[in-house]
Amino acid sequence: MGVKQWIGQWPVYRQLTGTDPLGRGSAAQSARSAGLEPRTRGADRVVDSVCPYCAVGCAQRVYVKDEQVVQIEGNPDSPISRGRLCPKGSASKQLVTGKQRVRTVRYRAPYGTQWQDLDLDTAVDMVVDRVLDARRKGWQDADEAGNPLRRTMGIASLGGATLDNEENYLIKKLFTALGALQVENQARI
Amino acid sequence: MGSNMAEAHPVGFQWVMEAKARGAKVIHIDPRFTRTSALADQHVTLRAGTDIAFLGGVINYVLTHDLHFREYVQSYTNATFLLSERYRDTEDLDGLFSGYDPLTASYDSSSWAYESVAAPERPGRRDKEQAASSRHGAGGPTVEGHAGEIAADLAMEHPRSVLQVLKRHFCRYTPEAVERICGVPRDLFLDVCRAWTANSGREHTTALVYSVGWTQHSVGAQYIRAGSIVQLLLGNIGRPGGGIYALRGHASIQGSTDIPTLFNLLPGYLPMPDTSHESLAAYLESISGRNQKGFWGNADAYTVSLLKEYFGEAATAENDYCFDHLPRINGDHGTYRTAMDMVDGKVFGYFLLGQNPAVGSAHGRLQRLGMANLDWLVVRDLTMIESATFWQDAPEIETGEIVPERCRTEVFFFPAASHVEKSGTFTQTQRMLQWRDQAVAPAGDQRSELWFFHQLALRLKARLAASTDPRDRPVQDLAWDYAADGDEPSSADVLRHINGIDLNTGRTVSGYTDLRADGSTSCGCWIYSGVYADEVNQARRRTPRSECGPYDAEWGWTWPMNRRVLYNRASADPQGRPWSARKALVWWDEERGEWTGDDIPDFERTKPPDYRPPEGASGPEALRGDDPFIMMSDGKAWLFAPAGLADGPLPTHYEPHESPMRNVLYGQQASPVRKVYGRPDNPSNPAPPEAHSDVFPYVFTAARLTEHHTAGGMSRQLPYLSELQPELFVEVAPELAAERGLRHLDWAHVITSRTAVDARVVVTDRMAPLLLDGRVVHQVWMPYHWGSVGLTTGDVVNDLLGVVVDPNVFIQESKVLTCDVRPGRRPRGPDLLAYVADYRHRAGITPRTGTRVVTAGDTDRPEHTEPCEWPEDPS
User: Fold this and answer.
1) Which residues share a beta bridge with B518?
2) Inter-chain contact B404–A147, Cβ cutoff 8 Å?
3) What's this model's pTM, rounded to 2 decimal places?
4) B353 and B411 part of one domain
5) For residue B601, what are the domain limits?
């Protein structure tokens, strides 16, 4: 390394001689920060998405590398959001990659004091058993006047405002066929 | 009004700021001074729960000064129609409308009809508890004969013309009354009236924004009616820069209303059938009505196509397209009724799908006690939430009301896939569907709801395949053959089926006018028809805003038919010309013989302005060329609602269920048809004319913070957001702090007859004391996001609430109640129960409190309580 190059590494020298007299840009940059690049640059692909929080519908770009989400940014093309995200939308990478996410089925037996592990397939089968049982226990064929009801009051469901239209469609369709009508979501609240 | 847009919808608020930069005046009317107020030209503080009094004042101002948009009102609203001689107004009946039945606390609305239209008298009971009430929000209100000539006075001077009835109804909503009720100084109120009227008309429009600050009231639907009346009188509906914006708070809460997971609706606002619908024909007649106008006239095509999508080949003309496979409703099956039924042991299993009622619903304690009394509970969420862990860490564990070893509820927690781990559409707050592509696969046991319900459906169908029980036929007949995408259905194929398919060609239909009632089309949601037109996923379109026209028609897809402004035929005058050059949106092109413009016309494209229907026409054919409100049974916007509402044809100022004030306008204190649930586990704080309302002297209201999301499941677990808003707090005015000895950043607790919660005190001028009818009233505000799980924890603010609901939509009154505030922390453990019981004792509260809903005149005042075991009155 020559003397000139060595001196040139000093921020104060660069500030005095370069294009950044206030020392708030390139003059203050270290070798480490010069080597940094945004997580978005190395992504394998960018996927179009929509913010999952409120109903404004801000467009998101999801940056994926090695099948992991590495960054989520606002999409400037959107006529709704013009690339902006609020604090929640900006935190949505933490929402999807944070360690608070539960990865396995958890089960609490009646009168239990602890969570237990349960295999996913077994758990779904157990729910099927219980749906049929609750449906039967709460079944009503007709009202007092003999009008058909053909329904069960034994099963209820709450949720949908955070889900996709396609999901809500199948939820309502299946519950309706089962005769379960106490199906509700945040829109009632 | 009723919205803190800058903090709750920050990115949407950029457009308000954009408008302001271009010269628009921004007025914020809300109980609390927020960042929205800080950025507005003017902030108006009003008492929570008094918006109808304020808006009624605006209506009165418009009508007394003749400032309505006369030609618009005359041509496009029902202002000219004459009402029945049987109609009596709140002016005549001390705050009640004609048709009130105190025994059932409900209305027979037959006297609210137009003069020339027959409406049979009906007993009120049916309206309140049976089908009609639970159908509100579905379809359009049907009134026989609206397609015919309706008696009218074009000059709008007849005393029974809607405009004159309106004038009389609102005549006592003077600036002085507004000041006494809302606490808004007269001059400030008049400033708002002048700004609103000056910025409306041919050359100008005003937009109105609301959020749940309007909906969460016992008169919530009437809040929105009041806003609509102002906007219609001023000609601000269906026009560019006008309208009413309902800002919704969840990514697809609009979608979950359109494609409802709601008990009273089928997709596309078709009503859930009730016990009066003996056949498909009877059901359809209840939607389309007889001899009435508009696009509900084609309800047969929408319904049969839905049944074809649900039951496929099994649905035939001979079997009414499996109409009898649908379960029947017969009353209130809303989420609060269900929670009480859980407490009462009538519900056995409960699914929670991305929702956390232990924190997010009113009366969290009732919710948790209900969940603790189930056979089983399935929770599907991204993270552990309070509704999954109530048996471990609910507040009731501390008080001893829930003991894990004695709590029988079996709990399954299924980890859910996040928004980037599945593909599908959200419908945002302006009805726009936007498709998300899947970015990555979910990990471990994480799955989408699509996967979960697909698995349930396949396994249930397999289990019931051999059954001969008729109740299992709907499951056997259920069409469930969506294209596969791995081990779940392809969401794109589900959206195709929602769009609708021509069963002869197998191709998607291009819109709802393609649907047929003969079984030749299937369609999962008629208002979404067109989202997959030409076999293209229109919701996936992402043409950048720089390359779209002024209405960004190629970004996403907006129902119906990608129309961005509803009822935009009203942006042109009756002859089809824009009201003014600067406010042009769609217009009639005489040469080409069609409607055209910057938006897709919300009108039959080739129906000319001077079209007059032939004798005996009904449905769409009966709409005149100058009937812009194509979903209404008379083609007009309703200033006065001759049908369809449970609580009156016109908005009326009623005090909230819990209020420190007597109603200064009428003997009738609060809504006479609000739905109360008089039960020992759902006490109310007393309100005048009941005694002891002074035990809970303050008005309480709650709302969101920017950095948290509703019940906190998606925010209190995140380090960034928890650091930005680390702790629950309560905002009080300096004067209230002095009155109660509260110190900034110290602890205080808020008490109602349900419970007490504690929080850090923020003493701030944001909460201004109000001068009401000669006395000072304080308001108290809290954010409501906290619970026992997450990086930041705190008391559940919704535990302060009881359950009382709007009779139209069964939404709870959670934006206004009464409370007391005291310094220091609340008592812990069983002492908390004793502390709150002492408050109830001092206030003389029994399960009957608040249930004598009629207080007008000298009518009987029956209680409306539930039949159950009551403890002895504390007195």
Assistant:
1) none
2) no
3) 0.96
4) yes
5) 568-636
